[in-house]
Amino acid sequence: MKRLADCHVAIVGLGLMGGSLAGALRGRCRSVTGVARRAGTVELAAVRGLIDRGTTDPNDAVSEADIVILATPVRVILQQIQNLAWHLADGCLLLDLGSTKTQILEAMDALPSQVEPLGGHPMCGKEFSGIDAADPSLYRGCTFILSPLERTAPTALTLGRELVEAVGATPLILDAARQDRLVATLSHLPYLLACSLVQTADATTSPDPAAWEIVAGGYRDTSRVAGSDVTMMLDILATNRHAILDAVSAFREQLDRMTALIEDEDEGKLKAVLASCQAERRRMFP
Amino acid sequence: MKRLADCHVAIVGLGLMGGSLAGALRGRCRSVTGVARRAGTVELAAVRGLIDRGTTDPNDAVSEADIVILATPVRVILQQIQNLAWHLADGCLLLDLGSTKTQILEAMDALPSQVEPLGGHPMCGKEFSGIDAADPSLYRGCTFILSPLERTAPTALTLGRELVEAVGATPLILDAARQDRLVATLSHLPYLLACSLVQTADATTSPDPAAWEIVAGGYRDTSRVAGSDVTMMLDILATNRHAILDAVSAFREQLDRMTALIEDEDEGKLKAVLASCQAERRRMFP
What we know:
alpha/beta; homodimer; 52% helix; Rossmann fold; 12 helices; 8 strands; 2 domains
């Protein structure tokens, strides 16, 4: 398998994640071809210097590529794996950036044997989406999960690692089920909490104009990810449903426990719980 | 009543909020006297240039002050209002920085008539506490709630406004019950959600070492306020119990509704809810 520097890379999807990755890879590989549904997005990516060339035709773009990266919502990735299967070049590395991995890896496993599939999930993002929000430094310092299939050749995984490191991220090898369980709690649950908090404020305090003036850092941070792209999040919720519902149950248990301590005015226990939360939070983010 | 520039100010409590306010007021009034329980804290505040002079004896500090500011946890404020009552100078403006206002204003109402009480609640903070975290720019750009009592003289409220504006904040007049209800949803609820999220991760994903590597922006932001000072938060939960329990109920309803849509795979409705959350979040923080 080639080195990254010798590879033609095609990125399908020029939103926040795909556009940012394109910009980060450009100059570190032979060429970056960007694919988007709308010609205006392709043009914008070119004007912003994120891609070497672009097209709205994925079949055309991927047939010459040594590396194809699918940077679309999870259920679009599932379709694209099927649609693109017979257009990929022999030995092509097919990587995706979807947030859930189990269903994607199942679809990848059905690919023709000359393709080298590799699941990917970069742990970065922003609450704004689209090419306008793209930023080549987005991947710097983030953990980039790689989920190889049994069929993935070691050389393909090595190329995947090289690509991840080239954009400033740190690769972490995880199997699909474990990654889906972890991100359900650490990423998808926070999204549902942020949305439910926004809904709560909307239903209770928002009619009071003062609410808009006193809304402070705590609310701003806790609600931030509610601004995430809806199509992306809908696909995540649909393809990681069980793990997410488990995470919500576990959360509800903790919230109920804490609420009961407040109701019962059990200050001793409440203090112990809050102190352990504080210590844990500070341990995670010193 | 005097102008701020002519006032001796005493600040009781040199933690994050008191220490930051001291530093912001210094030079804008005649003097800033800092009061802390521990001599080491007073020394540190002096070394950092946050105060003109300091003491560990509140009675001594407040007797000469034109403005006394209580910057301690809510239930300590409740005690201090009683303890300091007869040590305050005639015409002294007594302001507090407590996050809940109903009980504090009740206590203030029982003060001798020559004192001018005024409830305060600056909508700023950090997840770190103590004099080490103090920062004179903390108040810049924040909304600073002022809750006058019926007995509060208009001139006292004017001086309170002047003080708030002097540190770069914007005053917002709110009555105690309304402020307590609003902050229950917009500030205290986010704290409980952050803590419950940390507890959930602790109980489910934390044993997996990969959890520490993939924890990303969503979790970091949603859990940030779980790092808040425990004593401060315990006092808030105790003195705003009913409004907070109402906010938790309202939240639980929203989370249940969203979870049901995920369980039922009702994508149409789920999409509508997520889109309205996204729009609302972006409207609040453009």
